[in-house]
Amino acid sequence: MDSDEEERTLERGGKVRGGKYGALRSDLASSLAAFDRAQDWADLIHDLQRVNRVLLKYSPPDDNQYAYIPDKTLLARRLCQCVTPSLPSGVHLKAMETYHLVFGRIGPKRLAKDLALYSSGLFPLLAHAATPLKVPLFSLYETYVIPLGEALRDLCGGLVVAFLPALEDESSEFYPRALALLERLRLAVNHNVLFMSALWRTVLTVSSLRLIACNYIRSLIEADVLRGPTKPTTPTTSRSSGGMDPKARAIIPSVPLVQSAFCAAFEDSNVLVKRAALDLLISTSEFDLAEGALFQDSPIDESNSNWLSSDPPTSGPINLDPNASQSSSERIPKILAGDDVREKLIRSVVYVLVARELSLSKRVLSWLVGFRGSEPEAERFFESHVHPFVIRNVDTECAKAERALSSNEGELEYRKGIKDKEGKKGSSKDDEEDSKYETIRHDVIGIYRIVSGLLDRKEIYMVLKKEIGLQMIQVTSRLLKKVASSNLSSKEINILQQDLNHALKGIIAQVGFSHIFQQIADYLSVLTQGGLHPSKLVSTSAKANMAGPRGKRLPQEDDFTTLLFAVRYLPLASKEAQEEWIPAFVERTVQSFALLLEARQARLSDAEGHGQSIDADSGENTDRSLRAGLEFSIWLLGALNRNSTTSQIRLMKNWIYQLGIFFWIWLDGCIQIAPMELYQPLAIDTTKEEVLV
Question: Are 589 and 658 in contact (CB under 8 A)?
Fold first, then answer.
């Protein structure tokens, strides 16, 4: 049996009797079996020496015959056992000698096929390698691994994770060598999209390397080494890539992947990671909110997504044909539309403001205004591209806080990286309750920190001041109700209510009292006209009976309740409020009563004309709205001071007179004549006597 036939037999798992391979297989098996009897690290060094002697004894001749190594899976497993971080560097050095012997023996063709077997021990080694070990380790990569070229495509992600730890210390002597190694890897795989996908996937999944990966991606973009296709571009591939230039195509290999990587970085607990991600977001035109390729609605080619998934294949040729079809199990989720990507990324970026870290806040606000030169341009940019998503983000965060407050079993939505609860294992029930309260408080107060951070930027303030004040008042009103009905202790409820009131006062002070007054006046004007206010104060439970006469939208109980809650935070004793705002509020509230009573009378007339019964729920909603409106009006009238002018007193008397008229009309519509049978005298049967026990 010749050597080629012996190798094919061994590849199939068969046995070879006699010959050089038979002796090699026997000696190597006995050497590897000795690892089972190892007691300490010294025994491991001795066992590795035995393996090295066997490999040297049966070294192949110059024509590369007998290059196959029997039991290669067990050998790779034993080598992985010898390079764990718990062992001293002496064992690692001896194992590195074995790696050199194995890789030099089997040759590049077989190494390209078997490298995945040795990757489990070799790739993680650089992260914890001592300085004496790094020299032979770098030499191993440079001599045997990188020359494999395009055969490394399947293992590109693992190699990137293996090389990046060497970039942590820029003053290290191995830093330039690691940079050169990564650049050689990029050129070897000859596919920028594949290489950048591996980097973005590292940001997404490897928290310890996020900072290094973000900085390295930024350095690649700034060095402009990604420009130019790595393979011929055909009209078909150009259409499939959404018309993107090669540089943008390499920077954004997959929109969901890049978006998810950024979100993971912004949720990391390390401030330096967030700062590096923001610097990357700011420094690259592809991530511009208006014109960036990341937010374009044009589809990007995702057909070659088997290497974009979280678990890339370890063997087999990679398919680089953009027209080739893939099964659904091999594909990542469909690409998101531009607005969806923009909204999710803005939500993650804006949440960074919760930390109230100055360097992070400056970067966030700079990206949100698009680096426009003048204030008017920045203001227009924010209003066009960011403002709707910020408003929706506030609603989303409020809903999340409400769900946390409504949770009866403590199943709260923890944010990754914000709260590290690994050290809480085995904690007592009191500690778990404290953790629950702190999580609720963090989610609730985080809404106000986000809004407060946004208002710090003048261009953003000029846009948000028109509506954010009244929106935050409504948010606070809902949250206070949720807090009062939550299962927290009374002490925690009091503290959380105080925090909410304090946070709302801070937001109102930032927006300005005059803007809040104006928002309330505008809202009351819309109620009087029967329209729908853009601030969307109406709750979903009240939308069923909003329709009034001629299709107008009726004022609801929640409208007046929220407005009453709002005015309690405003300086009603000020001269501006006494002379301008309170008269305007009362006048428009009284006008809204006419709309409510008109709607009630229309329902009564319609029911009588068709011989139908009156809808009890509809009438009850109208009554509640009128009652809430009366309470709001009485509160405003009570806020007027006794030093009012003659004209104000005259107006006050007129309002009270109108309120009285509306009240009697309302009362007259509520009282109905009792049926005649109720007036019949009760027939009491005195023939029977009942004994009450």
Answer: no
Position 199 pLDDT exceeds 90: yes
**pTM score of the predicted model:** 0.77
Residue type, 106: I
**Cβ atoms < 10 Å from Cβ of 173:** 10
The pLDDT tens digits of the residues spanning 89-108 come to 999 999 999 999 999 988 88
Q: Is the pLDDT of residue 539 over 70?
A: no
Among the ranges given (52-61, 489-498, 646-655), the one the predictor scored with the smallest mean pLDDT? 646-655
Mean pLDDT of 154-178: 92
DSSP secondary structure string, 648-667? HHHHHHHHHHHHHHHHHHHH
d(CA 558, CA 470): 13
**Residues 426, 506 contacting (CB under 8 angstroms):** no
Residue 629: which of 659, 664, 654 has the closest Cα? 659
Is the Cβ–Cβ distance between 300 and 239 less than 8 Å?
A: no
User: 519 with 470: CB under 8 angstroms?
Assistant: yes
Question: What span, in angstroms and rounded, lies between the C-alpha atoms of 559 and 524?
Answer: 9
Ramachandran category for residue 374: left, alpha or beta (phi over 0 → left; psi -120 to 50 → alpha): beta
- Of 661, 659, 611, which Cα lies nearest the Cα of 634? 659
Average pLDDT of the chain to the nearest whole number: 76
d(CA 441, CA 232): 56
Residue 276, classed as helix, strand or coil, is helix
For residue 336, give Cα distances in angstroms to 239, 298, 339. Answer: 18, 10, 8
Question: Is 72 in a helix, a strand, or coil?
Answer: helix
- CA proximity to 270, closest of 416, 444, 424: 416
Q: Tell me which H or E stretch contains 341.
A: helix 338-351
Q: How many residues does the chain have?
A: 693
pLDDT of residue 380: 86
pLDDT of residue 573: 85
For 66-70, 527-531, 681-685, which range has the lowest pLDDT when averaged over its residues? 681-685
- Contact of 54 with 28, CB cutoff 8 Å: yes
- Residue 270: pLDDT band by 50, 70, 90 thresholds? very high
CB-based contact 517:465 (threshold 8 Å): no
The residues, any chain, with a CB within 8 Å of residue 366's CB and separated by 6 or more, are 282
Count CB neighbours of 239 within 10 A. 13
261, HSE (Cβ side, Cα atoms, 13 Å): 33
Q: How many CA atoms lie within 13 A of 578 on its CB side?
A: 14
Whole-number pLDDT of residue 653: 65
- Asked whether the beta carbons of 259 and 229 are under 8 A apart, the reply is no
Angle at 598 between CA 467 and CA 602, to 5 degrees: 125
For the cut 70, the answer to whether the pLDDT of residue 584 exceeds it is yes
Q: Which residues contact 216 (CB under 8 A, 6 or more apart)?
A: 164, 167, 182, 199
Separation between Cα atoms, residue 95 and residue 13, nearest integer Å: 26
At 97, is the secondary structure helix, strand, or coil? Answer: helix
How far is Cα 90 from Cα 83, in angstroms, rounded to an integer? 10
Q: 12-21, 317-326, 346-355, 578-587: which range is least confident on average?
A: 317-326
Q: What is the distance of C-alpha 551 from the center of its chain?
A: 40
Q: What are phi and psi of 672, to 5 degrees?
A: -120, 150
User: What token pair was written down for 425?
Assistant: 């294992």
